[in-house]
Design a protein that fits this description.
It contains 14 helices and twelve strands. The protein has a seven-stranded parallel sheet, sandwiched between helices. Helix 1 packs parallel to helix 2, helix 4 packs parallel to helix 6 and helix 8 packs across helix 9. The protein starts with 10 loop residues before the first strand and ends in an 8-residue tail after the last helix. InterPro entries: HSDL2 (IPR051935), NAD(P)-bd_dom_sf (IPR036291), SCP2_sterol-bd_dom (IPR003033), SCP2_sterol-bd_dom_sf (IPR036527), SDR_fam (IPR002347).
Amino acid sequence: MENTGKLAGYTLFVTGGSRGIGKSIALKAARDGANIVIAAKTAEPHPKLPGTIYTAAKEIEDVGGKCLPCIVDVRDEKAVQAAVDEAVRTFGGIDILVNNASAISLTGTLATTMKKYDLMNNVNTRGTFLCSRACLPHLLKSKQRSRQAHILNISPPISSITPKWFKSFPAYSIAKYGMSLCVLGMAAEFEEQGIAVNALWPRTTVATAATEMLGGSSSAAHSRKTDIMADAAYAIFLKGISCSGNFLIDDEVLAKEGITDLDQYACVPGNQLSLDIFVNNNGSFAPQEKTSKKHNASRDQPSRNGNPEVSAIFNEMRKALSASVVAQIGGVVKYTLSASGKSESWTVDLKNGSGSIRQEDGKADCTLKMSPNTFVAMFKGEMDPTDAFMSGKIKIDGDMGLVMKLEKLTQNIPKSKL
């Protein structure tokens, strides 16, 4: 989407703007000549995540914007208020707030500690409410200056609320939909004052550091670039109060702007895309599971001696075991494969010695539950692991970080031998 220059002189307060979607939205507005306040925690380089508030500020200034980088933890009321006050002193006001900061842990109830629960709800829901509350007095003044005052939350559509999401990761779902409930309430509360409040969510996974941590290094190949969210946000900002109280999906926003060539946003044009979480399958972007030319009914019928295809995969995994792999992973992962009332468990010990794999229901740091069909299709490359997890075909209990590390082992398995 082409820049119009209409946000020149506007001031955007962007939480979590040092990387990913937040930074892309900031850069898009900066190309118009907007002032950007980056409110994020990363002041020093992170060992695993790229970018700081200062590197983001330089990028913003390099494309024509002005930037005020602020060290802000959105859980800290004093830090938020101090950043808002500094923004007003520096730029004279705030016109647009982007509530992008988020914490995530895709864990079930028993695997979610109260520390994780509090983190997600304090960053996502409470942080969104706090930043909105702090910025609103200035957004009201912005509207009095005839500007398009706006709050945009990066949160899912209310219409997608189903047990599907809450049963898989209830704490995170509560926290993200809490951000959406802020939209529902504030859009109505401030409608008469002319403040637009909306939610924006991606239809597919978007290639960010967080997505890679959750879906592995291969997830980007089935994702879109952050540019699609930036372009959609930009289009929303230009509409003002005529667009408020909406729960929008990125590609639907762009379609209304006449942008139908979405391949430009794909990390790998032509690749099948993975639906994001909180997006219910409406058929248009349904991840398609590839099927083998010959259907093997034994995939869905684990026998007492183990499914032959499952056994073959674990045999290939054994060949990839080594002391160096154990040193890199350092954990025990259990696969529980169930179908038709029968189940079998395989324990992969990547914590001790040179590693071992046994068909047993042993103790583990992380358990992956799925059907034999899903397991075989995933290891044969017929099903994307991220799609399988997002669609509920895989359930993970315990340390999800181990699953990401396990990719190092599974990548060494030659698909031609499965």
